[in-house]
Design brief:
By secondary structure, this protein is α/β, with parallel strands linked by helices. Helices cover 37% and strands 13% of the residues. It has helices at residues 2-10, 43-46, 53-60, 131-143, 170-183, 185-213, 222-228, 241-252, 260-268, 270-288, 292-295, 318-328, 361-373, 390-405, 488-505, 511-520, 559-571; strands at 70-75, 113-115, 146-149, 152-155, 162-164, 346-351, 378-380, 409-413, 441-447, 466-469, 473-477, 481-485, 523-524, 529-536, 539-546, 555-556. The longest helix has 29 residues, at 185-213.
């Protein structure tokens, strides 16, 4: 908690910006397959570390196609009319586009999938908030105006500090202080108002103390305060007194004027508090309300409130889903196009994500269950996250367990943040419910043509399973176009395509078995030294790793070896 308070105090002076990895359009000249859809190629034949898909098809030649596996893309929308995808869209055989709920599942006209962030009038949310913001706003009225200073609790509900009793639910209050405040940009700005108010009280206290100690000294300095206002035994003091002294010291380093008069006026200036209030208002307008209450109208905290959304799948952010679909499925060998991995697969689209923010966990849990109930054998989730509120985390783990029981593989990419996953817990993961390890969940990171990991991908010897091609890949894009793209979504699509290829010929294999096959049949990169960025105490550093120190499998997904192993296992 002390670390959080220091971050909150210093945040008034220091700005932090994070950027999510996104698909990037690029115009490039494409002459050969190893430059176009290189994820199909292999190092032995083409000199690039693709997924060996072309060789997998050579092995499968003459074998009977036994299924059209359904791949559920849980994320953004899709261009349903794209020339390369129309023949490979999943169609709900029990429903039709007539404005009726023919299959009685609560979703009207869910012919090709469902949009969980849509409304009855056809609207779709343009962005979704982050989980941290949602939890802050849920608890703000209870704890947003309360600050604990030592053993004293202050409320700033009136705009000025008033001593109040300790909160009744200390567990929830500590959850708010220790977890929610770190996860929410809004909470940081909102809390800065009250931290600044409390700080002005301490500044005024320091002023009284120094003037009482040196009544005749006129030219007081910041150094006088720092030296004389420290308590004799600061470690025995649990108040924020010394943290405000520290923040004063930090702040004074940004200015040449060290006179106490200058700094006293600066801290006591009422305009500071007005500006912080204005800043919170602007940030709330930007991050605080995604319109869900008006557009969707459900209770996002009630997983049993499940009948909501619409069937609008062509969203403003459909490019991501369209590119993923084009890597996974469609017709192979068509001139001018990329070659998808699993030409028999069908794409089910379940929208839970807009261009910005973090998907609601309720939407993801219901989307997973929808996919399983409609016989999807491969399910692709948008991304991992560090923050899953406990009750909602259970919704996700139960949904993945449900998929595990029904034999579906669940794929999730790790973020491009350069974090060591053994040091920071991300969800979903295989141990998230505290029970035995989840066996059907596979985590993916991005690799390039040279067989090297994305410099910024998260990594972990046990937590990350496998790397897959995801940089500089040509695929379908909205409006019957084809674009080059890069990102974790395309790496997930590559693995989903390979898994779908296995299910096409060996449909009896379960998601857990396919995960095991994929990890045991990689193109091994063990022993290869990798120059990789990592984040340590908030700072990015570049270090050397062996490939096997980055992921569990120690390699890159290999379709050829995977189908060979599947064929062998299928014969037992």
């Amino acid at each position: 908690m002390k670390k959080y308070f220091m971050l909150l105090i210093v945040s008034v002076f220091v700005g932090v910006c994070t950027v999510n990895a996104q698909l990037v359009k690029q115009k490039v000249k494409i002459d050969k397959q190893s430059e176009r859809d290189w994820y199909n190629c292999s190092f032995d034949k083409d000199g690039v570390y693709g997924a060996c898909v072309n060789e997998a098809y050579e092995f499968l030649k003459g074998k009977k196609v036994k299924a059209r596996p359904i791949v559920a893309l849980i994320g953004t929308g899709i261009d349903l009319e794209h020339e390369a995808l129309k023949a490979n869209l999943w169609k709900n055989a029990k429903d039709k586009p007539d404005g009726k709920d023919n299959d009685k599942n609560g979703y009207v006209d869910d012919v090709n999938g469902w949009n969980f962030i849509g409304g009855k009038d056809g609207q779709v949310m343009s962005f979704v908030t982050r989980e941290g913001e949602r939890e802050f706003l849920r608890l703000k009225d209870k704890y947003g105006d309360i600050i604990k200073d030592g053993s004293t609790y202050y409320s700033f509900a009136s705009g000025k500090p008033e001593v109040v009793e300790a909160p009744r639910d200390m567990k929830e209050f500590d959850y708010y202080r220790f977890i929610v405040l770190k996860e929410s940009r809004l909470a940081n700005t909102y809390g800065s108002q009250w931290m600044s108010r409390l700080g002005s009280q301490y500044i005024d206290l320091f002023d009284k103390e120094i003037r009482a100690k040196f009544p005749d000294k006129k030219d007081l300095t910041v150094e006088d305060i720092l030296i004389n206002c420290q308590l004799p035994n600061p470690k025995q003091d649990s108040s924020l007194r010394n943290y405000y002294l520290y923040s004063l010291n930090m702040a004074s380093n940004f200015f040449e004027d060290k006179s106490w008069e200058f700094w006293y006026k600066r801290y006591m200036d009422e305009s500071r508090f007005v500006k912080l209030a204005q800043k919170y208002k602007k940030e709330y307008e930007k991050f605080g309300d995604d319109g869900r209450k008006i557009i969707v109208g459900d209770n996002y905290l009630d997983v049993d409130d499940r009948v909501y959304g619409n069937n609008v799948l062509l969203t403003s952010d459909a490019m991501v889903g369209t590119m993923m679909a084009g890597v996974i499925t469609g017709s192979r060998g068509v001139e001018g196009r990329n070659n998808p991995i699993a030409d028999q697969a069908e794409i089910m689209t379940l929208v839970v994500q807009a261009g910005e923010g973090e998907p609601y966990l309720k939407d993801m849990a219901l989307a997973i269950r929808y996919a399983v109930d409609h016989e999807a054998s491969i399910i692709v989730l948008p991304q991992q996250n560090t923050f899953y509120p406990e009750g909602q985390k259970q919704w996700i783990s139960e949904a993945i367990r449900y998929a595990e029981k029904k034999g579906a593989l669940v794929i999730v990419p790790v973020l491009e943040r350069s974090w060591n996953l053994s040091e920071i817990t991300f969800y979903p993961n295989r141990w998230m419910d505290g029970e035995k390890e989840i066996t059907n969940l596979i985590t993916i990171a991005v690799s390039d043509k040279n067989g090297m990991p994305s410099p910024n991908s998260n990594f972990g010897t046990k937590e990350l399973d496998i790397f897959a091609p995801g940089l500089q890949i040509l695929s379908t894009s909205t409006g019957d176009t084809y674009q080059m793209g890069s990102g974790m979504a395309l790496a997930s699509a590559t693995v989903a395509g390979v898994a779908a290829l296995i299910k096409t010929y060996y449909p009896k294999l379960t998601g857990s078995q396919i995960r095991d096959i994929l990890l045991k049949t990689v193109t091994s990169r063990r022993g290869v030294e990798v120059e990789k960025s990592s984040t340590n105490n908030g700072e990015k550093i570049v270090d050397l790793y062996l490939f096997e120190q980055l992921c569990l499998s120690g390699g890159i997904v290999n379709a050829l070896e995977a189908v060979k192993a599947a064929d062998k296992l299928n014969r037992k």
